[in-house]
Amino acid sequence: LTDLLFDAARLNLIEHYEQQLHFFESTVYGSEWEWAPFTVLLASVLNGLGEGANAFFYHFSYWGHVASMLIFVNLLIHTKQFHEMTALPNVFFGSLDYPHSIPPLADLEDESAWEEGRIGVSKLEHLTWKQGLDLFSCTECGRCHDVCPTFVTDKPLTLKRFNQSLLKHLRNEESTLFRTGSTAEDKTLVGEIIRPETLWACTTCRACEEVCPVSIEHVPRILGLRQNQTMMEEAYPPEMASTFKGLERNFNPWGIGFDQRADWAEGLNIPLMADTKSETEGQPPEIDVLMWVGCAGSFDSRNQKIARATATLYQKAGVKFAILGSEEKCTGDLARRSGNEMLFQMLAGENVETLNNYKIKKIVTACPHCLNSIKNEYPQLGGEYEVFHHSQFIAKLVDEGRLPVSSNLKDTITYHDPCYLGRYNKEYEAPRNLLKHAAGEPMREMKRHGSESFCCGAGGARMWMEETIGSRINENRTEEAIQTGASTVATGCPFCMTMISDGIAAKGKTESMQAKDVAELVLEAVEAV
Ligand code: SF4
Ligand code: SF4
Ligand code: SF4
Question: 3-class DSSP state for residue 458?
Fold first, then answer.
């Protein structure tokens, strides 16, 4: 209103009293009537009051407008509409890491951090300023609800409510926190503000981050809270104890003897890196690429078949590759996602040392979790490599004509996007292109696919935890696959493979449906030529 009054008075002072109050004078912008019809109407009413009254309205409404804006802004800060001011800066200050923010490398040598409980996040003051801004910026639109696999399956986690709980605490503490840097009530976030089962429900699938209109980064906060719970409190789901022990002693989550890591390759004549060392010491070995097998490919019987199919494809294409065998250790993905940063740094550090000793430049892996760790997180520890998912690598071999593929597979295929390949590493096309080459008929997409894909439930170390609340995430996903009428669910992740296979069994569909890795389907298509 003050703006309208100001403009109407200004218009009268220009047109009837020859005052030079133009904002711009150019015919190309058209007339006042075209731009501001209500102003012109009000001006015609005010005109009869004379120059003095119009000058008064002009000055009064100018300062009235400034004052009301200042009052509004001050009130806004204390309402939930504050997000109108913080949303834009929140997007602007979003992480520049592409395509997602990389968890920071915790300084585990810092003794004062251990003494003061500052490993990870346990209190409000441990959040970064950006994480605080995230809390103020939530518009409560609820988009994150709809895509979250835990919310959809009735578990107690939604990003919206998670934000609301933390924001309420922040609002209560803001005056003390901003003045002193610490909180008055000294509440522990997990336990007093967020329930532990909420924290541990997250699969770190990033679906919520992908849809959030104000770019709130949820997963780093979850990982920070888990890190504190695991490292400082030893308060993790009890099932994780044996998983951690397996990783510590045998470098794989099942705890199977590390010396059996290359047993899957028996009879395939795959060289070990130790045997391919360049004759000239200090030179890179003479291989095209290192095949990173991962724990599932090495030890899980279903995934061992995928490792064998993948290696067979490389051999058919004449790729010079080798494996590390018992020198390979878990990448540490599940340790980091479950908050055990120390174990992550130990495993990742040892892997980086091994890879750097062999002067490895190029790595290919069938596991998106391994891919994500080695490609995006190992640079934090001095490991810089060119890393490919096996679907990307095989697609290149097919494009180069090194793998002749016949497109006459009988399977009707739908494809489940692994989140650590898709949302985490933006690869949606390579597996689909391979399936197009191999399949006899067009692929049937699930409703939730690509960047909107629905997690299988195994990410964020959930693969190693019990799922006791609500319905099962993998069954929800499998149900969607069944609805496509496909006979085969293709995927490119060993954990998705386990989850989808279990889902098919739980739905009693083992007779009519199966889960296969893209490499297995390509091998079938190659062998059918
Ligand atoms: S999508 Fe983002 S803005 Fe919307 S409720 Fe969720 S966190 Fe808040
Ligand atoms: S990362 Fe996935 S599981 Fe976790 S809150 Fe977001 S949508 Fe839900
Ligand atoms: S197992 Fe597959 S779908 Fe599930 S979180 Fe990992 S990559 Fe995503």
Answer: coil
For the chain, what is the total number of helices (H) and then of strands (E)?
A: 24, 7
Q: Note the pLDDT of residue 283.
A: 60
Task: Tally Cβ neighbours within 10 Å of residue 299.
Answer: 23
Asked if the model's pLDDT at residue 26 lies above 60, the reply is no
Atom of ligand 3 nearest to the CA of 368: 7
Ligand number nearest CA of 457 is 3
Closest-lying ligand to the alpha carbon of 389?
A: 3
SS3 of 279-320: CCCCCCCCCCEEEECHHHHHHCHHHHHHHHHHHHHHHHCCCC
Tell whether ligand 1 has an atom less than 6 A from the beta carbon of residue 138: yes
Question: Going from the N-terminus, what domains does the chain have, and what CATH number goes with each?
Answer: 2-76 (no CATH), 111-231 (1.10.1060), 251-398 (3.40.50), 405-527 (3.40.50)
Q: Write out pLDDT tens, residues 218-255.
A: 999 999 999 999 999 999 999 999 999 999 999 999 99
Closest by CA position to 473, among listed 516, 419, 409, 513: 419
Dihedral sign, Cα of residue 124, residue 127, residue 132, residue 138: negative
Nearest alpha carbon to residue 439 among 522, 344, 340, 341 = 522
pLDDT tens readout for residues 438-495: 998 889 999 999 999 999 999 999 999 999 999 999 999 999 999 999 999 999 999 9
Query: What whole-number distance in Å separates Cα of residue 238 and Cα of residue 250?
Result: 19
Q: ω into residue 37 within 30 of 0, thus cis?
A: no
Largest CA distance in the chain: 101
- Pocket residues: Cβ below 6 A from ligand 3: 203, 205, 368-369, 418-420, 455-456, 458-459, 493, 495-496
What is the atom index within ligand 3 of the atom nearest the CA of 419? 8
Higher pLDDT, 266 or 18: 266
Side by side, the strands of the sheet bearing 289-292 are 321-322, 289-292, 362-365, 386-389
Q: How far is the CA of 144 from the centre of ligand 2 (A)?
A: 8
* 494 CA: nearest ligand 3 atom: 1
Note the ipTM here: 0.86
SS3 call for 23: coil
